[in-house]
């Protein structure tokens, strides 16, 4: 009986040598299913991101026109861009200034987030009011601020003249001195609500017992802010800064509506200058070279921001 039972157990127990093959097949099926679900997104990413990027690099190395065959140009477009086009460096400076305004907006949004995070009456209403500017279409924002800045009937000039601050209206959007700051102010007004929501979410994720422990140890409000709030808000601050970088590289519609890049190149950013070069002047090859420079600059700034944030922003940690 004992021998028959042992034979029956041996016959029903799985072969140890077959286990790896079984798990390998299961793993292959799982990987196949994962790639099947990823395939549509990867195809779209390839068609609308990778292929245009590669074609743009090729285009920047050619003399290209829709009316005649392309010829190899080597680095001619880049040489012209870096050494002979003064307007290019002007628009790069404008783009960096536009981007440098992001910390100002983030600081203002952090102050607002700290206020509406307090136990005050109507804080939900205040949050809604501040956030309301963000969902507004950028074209509408441009039209609103274009009217506010109007030299003759604009509200800003009307208030300044009424209080005797200026004798006559200032042509903000036609001035080489005021045009870029005016556009930056409009951009900050639109995006500050979005910054506030991100930072408010970060503030609410900080455990209150940390502030209680700091208070027991005698830490002041300022010390708690710099030692607890700011370090724990690093991911949220990094996200806001990246959004600010993206906004400075994609502020085409706001610039186009408010100033069209003028006067001169006073408010031209890289994206608007690329558009004008390609679709107004017809220099698609030169515009492609500037697009490559725009991409390199964006990636470089994002890398620097990531390093300043600790080098692990956006990293996904696996639980043990």
Structural class: mainly alpha
Mean pLDDT: 86
Distance between the termini: 47 Å
CATH-scheme architecture of the largest domain: Orthogonal Bundle
Name of the CATH superfamily of the largest domain: MetI-like
**Widest sheet, order of strands:** 1-2
- Individual helix count: 15
Write down the secondary-structure element order.
Answer: HHEEHHHHHHHHHHHHH
Biggest beta sheet attributes: 2 strands, antiparallel
Number of strands: 2
- Shape by Cα distribution: flat
What features would you describe in this structure?
It is a single chain. The protein has 320 residues and is an all-alpha fold. It folds into 2 domains: 16-60, no CATH class; 76-308, MetI-like (MetI-like fold, Orthogonal Bundle). The chain is 71% helix and 3% strand. It contains 15 helices and 2 strands. A hairpin with a 2-residue loop joins strand 1 (62-65) and strand 2 (68-72). The chain is flat, with a radius of gyration of 28 Å.
